[in-house]
Amino acid sequence: MEYLPFSQGDDSKGSFEEIIERLLSRSRETKAGKFDETSDVVEQHRLQSLQKALVVQWLCFTPPSTITDVKDISAKLLMRALIHRVPAMPIGAHELLSFLAEPLKQLSETPDTFEDYVSENLKEFQDWSEYYSCDATYRNWLKIELANAEVSPDELSVEEKQRAIMAAKETLDLSFLLLLRERNPWLISRVEHISESMEPLFLELHATAMLRLPSGESMCPDATVCAALMSALYSSATEEVVSERQLTVNVAISSKDSYSIEVILRCLAVEGDGIGPHILNDGGLLSAVMAAGFKGELARFQAGVTLEISRLDAWFSSKDGSLEGPATYIVQGLCRRCCIPEVILRCMQVSVSLMESGNPFESHDQLIELVSSSETGFINLFSQQQLQ
């Protein structure tokens, strides 16, 4: 940083930003791996998720005070870290959030620098931080519940019962804070894409994923499995939609990892999904197709098999297939489809547990109202199976 310019200005000289960009880009690639029947494939992917999060450490440091514009560069480094995406596996996400928490706190203490660099990525970081707080409190409650279930109710102490009740209420309180955000709904982008091109605009979603059996084991895909999955993804949309939106699906075994598959979805952008404001905030057609696989609800595929995504990107593309720019609303919509129903269903589970213990949750009925309300739009995020 002392000997190279931060940003490229002279073609004859490299820049710090270029080096970091290459490092971050490589960190998102799935490493080539060979697995046999004795390998713990899930553990290998879990470790890769952690390694991909660790790369952000390169951005979470204080630059030397001797360099020019040190405050601005510190802010730029942090914002670049916020833009960097890592897999949604909790171990990677938790690691990333922990790295960014302290630098963000320091930066927020200097608002004159901070305000210039506030972006959608900062909002997304804060949203994910809140979600994982909800996730942690739920898992804590579940751990207590499972431990208490191993003991006869008559033998449970008052303290143990009270501990479970307090954990349940904390879970519900945090979850409701996330669900009831009116001015700033969870993971909704404030940036709208309006195409000025006269040419047809397309949308693409690229994902690297593993097939996970209900037992938790990984399924090793072959050509037959890929063909079946491709057909199942097509069938998650009606024939009319497939035709009108020119939906195409491609599934292939990853060249880098025999246990991973590469999924590419592509469709025509239309008003409300790729063109103009996206009012439903559910990610549109491509999000709906991928969510069916993520939730293990593909009608014409092996029951209960889910797609565990390790890399996900969405793009606007031209008619000839060249990528125009990121379609963030698709990725965020997919996350909303997967996370918000999960939070609500967990709340139902916790609320029912409180009722059974004789401590009913006052806002139990509000959960039902949240799902059915046209204002929240949550009902669009639920699959038919989840609603049932």
Automatic annotation (TrEMBL):
<keyword id="KW-0539">Nucleus</keyword>
<dbReference type="GO" id="GO:0000973">
    <property type="term" value="P:post-transcriptional tethering of RNA polymerase II gene DNA at nuclear periphery"/>
</dbReference>
<keyword id="KW-0906">Nuclear pore complex</keyword>
<dbReference type="GO" id="GO:0006406">
    <property type="term" value="P:mRNA export from nucleus"/>
</dbReference>
<dbReference type="GO" id="GO:0006606">
    <property type="term" value="P:protein import into nucleus"/>
</dbReference>
<protein>
    <recommendedName>
        <fullName>Nuclear pore complex protein</fullName>
    </recommendedName>
</protein>
<dbReference type="GO" id="GO:0031080">
    <property type="term" value="C:nuclear pore outer ring"/>
</dbReference>
<keyword id="KW-0813">Transport</keyword>
<keyword id="KW-0811">Translocation</keyword>
<dbReference type="InterPro" id="IPR007252">
    <property type="entry name" value="Nup84/Nup107"/>
</dbReference>
<dbReference type="GO" id="GO:0017056">
    <property type="term" value="F:structural constituent of nuclear pore"/>
</dbReference>
<keyword id="KW-0653">Protein transport</keyword>
<keyword id="KW-0509">mRNA transport</keyword>
